[in-house]
What we know:
The structure holds two protein chains of two kinds.
Chain A: H1 3-9, H2 17-28, H3 34-41, H4 45-57, E1 61-68, E2 76-84, H5 89-97, E3 102-109, E4 114-120, H6 123-134, E5 140-154, E6 158-159
Antiparallel strand pairs in A: 2-4, 2-5, 3-4
Chain B: H1 7-18, H2 24-31, H3 35-47, E1 51-58, E2 66-74, H4 80-88, E3 93-100, E4 105-111, H5 114-125, E5 131-145, E6 149-150
Antiparallel strand pairs in B: 2-4, 2-5, 3-4
Helix pairs in contact in B: 2-3
Amino acid sequence: MSDLSTSAASGPIDLDTMDQAIIALLRKDGRMPYRAIARELNIAENTVRARVRRMEESDTMRVVAVTDIEAAGYGMLLAIGVQVEGRSPETVAREMAAFPEVFSVNVVVGAQDIEILVVSRDQAALNELITDKLGAVPGVRRLTPALALDVLKNQPDWVPFHAA
Amino acid sequence: MRRNLDEADQAIVERLSRDARVSNREIAEQLGVTEGTVRARVKRMEEEKLIRITAVTNIDRFKDAALAYIWIEVERSGQTKVVAEKLAAIVELGFVGVMLGRADILAITMVRNAEHLAEFLHQHISVVEGVRGTRSTLGVNFVKHDYRMARIVS
Lengths: 164, 154
């Protein structure tokens, strides 16, 4: 195993300003050609290629297509607080993460034990998700939902790569 | 309402959601269509804000990064939209939504720790005109985020 693949397994990484400049350009336009990035940052095209490859191979950065939830057929987005009893929040969180409609799961501290973000096609599907699926997960004491009436901003730039 | 992706769009997006640095030619070869078709469809989906092609970074690879959920109450209900618009302009916020239930607005950001969150609230959120109060929860374990879906606004 190379050092690179070993380091990819765990441990924090420090990105220098050039890496960060490349990421900033790719956040704006993920399909920006290597040559255009090189020109913009005044560095060699091969340097850009090598740095992008290094960040991808070390599981630090990915360039991906993000689909609009409405275009994917989901009309509703909700933030649901979950209170847990009798089981560890981590275990309940992992079981909730298995539902595809549950697109974000965070174990938190405060009045709630877990915060999740979910999408739903319509009200009937939402009823099924909350009542039959999430409410039936062992250890769930109470679900406190809030419906997003209008999403003004949603740029999940920083995310965990596992379980996605 | 935005149109739903058709089957050909979905096949292209499926490929791009794994690695969007792949060339149009490679996608075209895999799907048995022309390169021009792939290019035109990707361009159209981006223009219609059905997809966004962007870099995402792995929070697990960075030290001291936790997600904070900030629930915001406004002074008067009629101010909600204006306050939400002001919040959306704050670069550090990754999510801003007008909510029905729990609070008037939900904002999500990445912070280093509880001290950093307190400082962020004090400097950026409480000072916004119309914000009556906030309640926050700090993430201790970011279990999942399917970055392949989001509400594409801009």
